[in-house]
Amino acid sequence: MPLTSAERRSLRARAHTLKPVVQTGGQGLTEAVLAEVDIALEAHELIKLRLPGMPREDRREAARRSAAHCKAELVGEIGSVVILYRPQPRNDKPGDKPGNKSSAGARPAARARKPAPARPWGAGGREGGREGGGGSASGYRGREGAGPRERGGSRGGGESRGPGGGRDGGRAGSRGPGGRAPTGRGSGR
Fold first, then answer.
1. Among 11, 66, 98, 140, which is least packed by CB within 10 angstroms?
2. 72 versus 107: which is more confidently predicted?
3. Distance CA 41, CA 44 (A)
């Protein structure tokens, strides 16, 4: 059954992140390469095939030949890479998941992870125990989403901000002339 243009577009999008799983050698498209393409299509349903070192028309013919041999659809060609698609047969036996060939070797489903336990305020975070940090030392939690300045603390030091003000916590000499931070490049501006 031929693919519609929407199906081709969707398959090309799915194949975008795939790497080629089969590559032809110096002898071109041999029976061994076609057998590998068939095995890859059974395992993956959508594959990329690399056909290097062939002229454009020979690549197109090789792509058509590989699709016909493996009973697959030719989704597209990008340079020397060909995208092939063959839907895997669906088994509708009771107990089988859709798309699985059998449930004999299937792995059990992964268990859901438990959420991490909630930590009380000040039990280890960035602010716990800092002087003026707004953590558990002062007991004040502030409004939700408030930054450190709005909670009553500062990031870098004590309560007051010296002559420089700003994030540096008032360290002397941290600002250049005019209250600007020095750039370190020649003129200072």
1. 98
2. 72
3. 5
